[in-house]
Amino acid sequence: MNRIPFDEYAAIDAVNWSSLKNMEDSPLHYKHRLDSKEDTDTTGRSMGRLLHTLVLEPENFGAHYAIYPGPVRRGADWEDFKAANAGKTILKENELTEVRAQAAAVRAHPEVAPLLHGGEPETTVLWKEPRHGIACKARLDLWHPKRAALVDLKGTPTTDPRRFGQIAARMGYFAQLAHYKQAVEVGMRRAVYDVLIVAVETAAPWDVAVFKLEDEDLEVGRIYVDDYLDKLKACRESGVWPGRCPSVQRIQLPSYVFGDGDVVITMEEV
Fold first, then answer.
1. What single-letter DSSP state applies at residue 110?
2. Would you give per-residue pLDDT tens digits along the chain (270 residues)?
3. I need a labelling partner for 117 at 20 to 30 A (CA). Which of 35, 96, 106, 233 fits?
4. Which of 30, 4, 20 is CA-nearest to residue 244?
């Protein structure tokens, strides 16, 4: 367990969640993600990283970010500013203002403040998963050793518990946190009492909620992760990385095509 720069973490040859989750599509998608050198940054991703910095490591802001004062990201002034701030993520003032509001809301939440006090942010963990001995790595948003709490920070369109539950299912957060829980238990040899998601809305009023994943949520997540790792082991041994449909499949037409009672479905000519 240690804190290292992200570039060093990224260079470690081990399986991380951001690549492993592509097994949900297929081994072919996983291998493409692993082999692809394309990792295009976006403003949204930059703002997500900025949120993590302002919440978890605000003292590191100046070392990693620069705010461009110009109206547009083009022209000689923009090129000069980029050159003067090489290696930093460059944002505009309005983007910083939005994320600062998000971060302030997170830090002010009564359930979050105690987690930040004594918590260890951006912690790298290396371990071998027990079933196959596959080398894995994780970069935990926050580990609170005294509370034995594993915390992940997410931006979200809504903090409504039911709707966020749907988002967590679609995005695989329950499996991601099961993977991170194993990182703590195996890689750090520590028990985990609480697995929490701190969710903050990405638009005003920047509502914040803290969601706890129960044991049954994490058990289901572990089933998903183990299935991905089983597929990874098999593909590594065979050298075959199949796509979604390695054999002939019946097409799955939507039910409305077949009609319902007296409803008549017609097809328009193109």
1. T
2. 577 888 889 899 999 999 999 999 999 999 999 998 655 566 667 778 889 999 999 998 888 888 888 888 888 889 989 899 988 888 888 888 889 999 999 999 999 999 999 999 999 999 999 999 999 999 999 999 999 999 999 999 999 999 999 999 999 999 999 999 999 999 999 999 999 999 999 999 999 999 999 999 999 999 999 999 999 999 999 999 999 999 999 999 998 898 865 554 444 443
3. 96
4. 30
Q: Quickly tell me which residue has 């992760």 as its tokens.
A: 225
**Report field, pTM of the whole predicted structure over 0.85:** yes
Report CA-CA distances (Å) from 197 to 112, 141, 202.
10, 10, 15
- CB atoms closer than 10 angstroms to residue 227: 13
Closest CA to 138 of 225, 220, 211: 225
Residues found in the chain: 270
